[in-house]
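Example (one chain per record):
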Amino acid sequence: MPTTHLMIVHPRYIAPLLSGTKSLESRLGQDRRAPFGKVNPGDTIYIKPTGKRVVAKAIVHQVDEYEDLTPEDIENLRDCYDDRIMGGDQYWESKSNSKYATLISFAKVTMLRDESTVPAELLVPSRNAWRLIETEDQSARKAA
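Predicted structure:
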């Protein structure tokens, strides 16, 4: 069963995500925090600009994950994917020591008129830039 996620992004990325210009979302970090290992093709992702309401919904098409990255690996990811990630120099410099990367492409991104279709659990205030709802069935499968 697909998982439902909330992805918080900088407001400047909303228009490119909706138009398909930004066709790849990247999450790089020092640890295995979500979405690493938590997002799969077919999952639904609600998209929320920082400090605003949820404005879009996407279906995950493909996920690529990398671990034990070096600064050279990060530079290779930039060379291969930045035209679709649209990260810019400051983004890549801030991520140069990341050890984990999750790259997510979307099959479809659509605009939402309001948040009424967004699961309430995802709208609870949090400092996390990525949230997800796992059903008991999914949690049991991962524990097995």
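Caption: The helical segments are 14-19, 71-85, 88-94, 136-143.
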